[in-house]
């Protein structure tokens, strides 16, 4: 995750969060859309819900983490999870001093365990990966960070609350041996057919302060080369890639490097956030709006790959979100509905997977959470309280697997395998401010959008289910405001009330009239329509 996100602003928020009732909309925009349900369509894989990010590896042993994992799995049926820190000392994999101690203790003892003198301890790693698989989720294995006793600089501590070490290894022989032992252990425990499905990504954002090598790019190439070759030496079926950079950086350079050095790669990965700047991502002086930045970055990298020596290399954006900062008006709010739907509309066909950061606010990069709504990255706030973003993912999961082309920047039309028509409609507007407090505008809200749908090749009076997320539907912040925005820890009774308030709003029921439907969507609102075959 981008280290720019490491500002502990939520520590100051508990007494400042606010939420006001939606204001009267004084004008509405009109949009007329025609959809032929039998027209040609293109594949629409749900690339936005295949993988999610999460807090660091050790957090996956917590029950709260696993409870949230189950909730998001049920909502999206996602396949894999990515987190930092599988090699961090708190996971306990690497300790060369253990070898000498245990060997001395077991020398001459009959029946001593064969690995008692190993430098590696897989106890927590097994519990971490066993736990994911037991919850029907595969690991997306980010290979980070540096074990303290392998580091070339033990003082190279990242400022995250848990202070991972980010230096290169003092010995690449030791690093290679550890990578080989790690891969061999996973294959022995889970089988090559299972582990061959996982992605192994070398490090995290080496173009920022997550990598202490100097110069950063050249020393990262060295790390990547050693790691990729060590993994492929264990099994050529293991999938390895990088460079996992922030701000969509280095992909072209990475592909040129692996070509020149003849180093294996099965995919490329990079990251972007919607409030990254054009200067950092696109290397221009444009003012790119929040609803366009992720698309612009994805398109740029997609084109870099097309013009590289590997034009068909799979592309994974292994981190993205609407904000890298703590912005309650963004990640905690219904704003996420239109933003995510529009991002999906634009990025379809340009990337194999976009991995939302993150699935849960069981998360400690900035310290221990003190209030549930501080602009965290997760779909679920602390205490298992669902945010509007979780409901957004629930609704968009209903979209079909074939996309029907539309001339609209506020709609997606899809068809399911069963023949149902599923349409997403939204009214995008910028967030209600970008500061650390949840606020509503002082003036009139942005206008609502009035859609008139004309549907062809459907039953003229077909039943319609309408799932909404907006200021008044599936929005826990409204209840939090009514509760007086209690600071700090919530009581069990308050948690129960907020969980109920944040649940997905029941579907509205309507029907077509002569193949037509009129529907109004408020600013920051998303509506997903399921029209029976």
UniProtKB/TrEMBL annotation:
<dbReference type="Pfam" id="PF01229">
    <property type="entry name" value="Glyco_hydro_39"/>
</dbReference>
<protein>
    <submittedName>
        <fullName>Beta-xylosidase</fullName>
    </submittedName>
</protein>
<dbReference type="InterPro" id="IPR049165">
    <property type="entry name" value="GH39_as"/>
</dbReference>
<dbReference type="InterPro" id="IPR017853">
    <property type="entry name" value="GH"/>
</dbReference>
<feature type="domain" description="Glycosyl hydrolases family 39 N-terminal catalytic">
    <location>
        <begin position="32"/>
        <end position="501"/>
    </location>
</feature>
<dbReference type="InterPro" id="IPR000514">
    <property type="entry name" value="Glyco_hydro_39"/>
</dbReference>
<feature type="active site" description="Proton donor">
    <location>
        <position position="205"/>
    </location>
</feature>
<feature type="signal peptide">
    <location>
        <begin position="1"/>
        <end position="27"/>
    </location>
</feature>
<keyword id="KW-0732">Signal</keyword>
<keyword id="KW-0378">Hydrolase</keyword>
<comment type="similarity">
    <text>Belongs to the glycosyl hydrolase 39 family.</text>
</comment>
<dbReference type="GO" id="GO:0004553">
    <property type="term" value="F:hydrolase activity, hydrolyzing O-glycosyl compounds"/>
</dbReference>
<dbReference type="InterPro" id="IPR051923">
    <property type="entry name" value="Glycosyl_Hydrolase_39"/>
</dbReference>
<dbReference type="InterPro" id="IPR049166">
    <property type="entry name" value="GH39_cat"/>
</dbReference>
<dbReference type="GO" id="GO:0005975">
    <property type="term" value="P:carbohydrate metabolic process"/>
</dbReference>
<keyword id="KW-0326">Glycosidase</keyword>
